[in-house]
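Re: [ENG-882] Designed sequences occasionally contain unexpected residues at chain ends

Forwarding the minimal case from QA. Structure tokens:
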């Protein structure tokens, strides 16, 4: 029996090929069998939000993608054997700027607390409505300042970092393997967007580990003066604290490969004396909206909160179930065009699926085959649609469908009937009946379509006694 077979509890052989989870590893640029360091302690870290503003729909993609992976790992290895850490960055210059803008009359620390708490709470509320499970750990950067200072001291002692002009910087030339994740040579490196190329750096690609704070900025005492950490050191320390020096999977968006994840590897490997920080690196593709890069200047920038609770996108609110499925209808590594048409397609699909039930049944073998093939949610959804159709014809298969749907974290659209104006709907249905009697087919069809868009389905028939045309309606579920 191979190591892969031993490592994956439900692995077996089919036609001489390994059956189990396979993932595309950014580190090697290949699809590989996933073999955890320990099948009793499978560990995953994903970069979470910087809480200076409400999370936008692009931020939702990695949260949903790695929620599916978390669910799948729980299924394969048992929830008690899986640890998922997703951080919150609550110390950052963007947070400082937002605090000064929104709360200019408060002391900065109080203003920052107001911004980060409100934003973090909204993030949690939004992603819960997207059907995402809570991670095992959700560390905040401000809770690990001591660990960051300790790691920076280690890097200085080992010759991987230096102090210059009040900053501590990582010396990228001190790590021969630097650039291994992004496949960039040092000569080609450019400093990250958060790092200014200044004369006090030994090399343009060197990045900040610690920077001094003014009296008006948040700061912590350190051997190098009162200051605050750089962005990259935060994740190195938080992931090590919760998952160890080397863990199984590190995930995030494609935009984080360089410089953030590259710099995490440099810090962690040099400080801990390891060749790797994580064995598998997984990255989701970019998101655009209605065919264009999302930006406020383009007028196509939408937060998760706006999509859920406002009528700013497509002139309506969208259920979290629809947003989730729409996100999963494209393979996670591919770019995604987030559009009204895509959301409507997801909603139509969900309207045809039954509600899952609690069940001890196992997910469909075909469904698992799709999902364990590098999270192929596109193929998994196709299987799930077939299972839903079978369950409608044969209730005995509802358990298999339900187990599969739950593993993907999708639910049929739940109709909100709390504010349903039934008298208005009845009036519009009666109006349509008059349109039909007058043979005004176009207007009758328009009324029907308008009601359908609001989640009201009409069913035409005849009265059993009088033979007159009657129409009943129901809320689409």
């Amino acid at each position: 029996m191979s190591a892969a077979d031993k490592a994956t509890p439900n692995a077996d052989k089919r036609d001489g090929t390994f059956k189990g989870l396979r993932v595309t590893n950014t580190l090697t640029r290949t699809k590989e069998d996933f073999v955890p360091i320990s099948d009793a302690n499978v560990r995953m870290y994903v970069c979470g939000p910087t809480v200076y503003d409400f999370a936008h729909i692009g931020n939702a993609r990695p949260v949903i993608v790695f929620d599916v992976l978390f669910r799948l790992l729980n299924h394969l290895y048992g929830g008690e054997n899986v640890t998922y850490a997703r951080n919150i960055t609550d110390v950052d210059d963007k947070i400082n700027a937002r605090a000064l803008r929104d709360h200019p009359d408060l002391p900065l620390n109080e203003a920052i607390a107001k911004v980060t708490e409100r934003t973090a709470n909204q993030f949690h509320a939004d992603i819960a409505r997207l059907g995402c499970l809570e991670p095992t750990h959700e560390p905040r950067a401000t809770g690990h300042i001591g660990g960051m200072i300790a790691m920076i001291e280690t890097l200085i002692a080992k010759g991987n970092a230096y102090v210059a002009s009040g900053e501590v910087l990582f010396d990228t030339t001190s790590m021969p393997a630097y650039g291994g994740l992004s496949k960039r040579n040092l000569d080609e490196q450019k400093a990250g967007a958060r790092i200014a190329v200044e004369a006090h750096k030994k090399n343009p690609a060197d990045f900040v580990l610690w920077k001094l704070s003014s009296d008006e900025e948040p700061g912590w005492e350190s051997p190098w003066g009162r200051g605050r950490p750089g962005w990259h050191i935060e994740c190195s320390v938080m992931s090590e604290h919760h998952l160890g020096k080397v863990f199984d999977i590190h995930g995030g968006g494609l935009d984080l490969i360089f410089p953030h994840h590259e710099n995490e590897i440099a810090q962690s490997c040099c400080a801990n004396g390891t060749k790797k920080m994580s064995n598998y690196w997984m990255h989701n593709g970019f998101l655009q909206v209605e065919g264009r890069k999302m930006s406020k200047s383009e007028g196509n920038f939408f937060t998760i909160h706006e999509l859920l609770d406002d009528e700013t996108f497509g002139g309506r609110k969208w259920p979290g179930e629809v947003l989730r499925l729409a996100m999963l209808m494209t393979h996670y590594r591919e770019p995604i065009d987030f559009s009204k048409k895509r959301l409507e397609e997801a909603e139509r699909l969900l309207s045809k699926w039954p509600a899952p039930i609690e069940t001890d049944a196992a997910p469909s073998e075909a469904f698992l085959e799709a999902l364990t093939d590098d999270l192929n949610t596109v193929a998994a959804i196709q299987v799930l649609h077939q299972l839903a159709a079978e369950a409608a014809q044969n209730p005995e298969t509802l358990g298999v469908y339900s187990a599969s749907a739950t593993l993907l974290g999708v639910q049929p659209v739940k109709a909100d009937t709390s504010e349903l104006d039934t008298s208005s709907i009845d009036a519009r249905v009666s109006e349509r009946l008059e349109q039909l009697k007058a043979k005004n087919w176009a207007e009758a069809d328009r009324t029907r379509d308008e009601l359908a868009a609001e989640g009201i389905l009409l069913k035409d028939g005849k009265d059993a006694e009088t033979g007159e045309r009657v129409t009943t309606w129901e809320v689409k579920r």
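QA comment: On inspection the terminal residues look reasonable. Residues 108-129 form the longest helix (22 residues). Proposing we downgrade this to a documentation issue.
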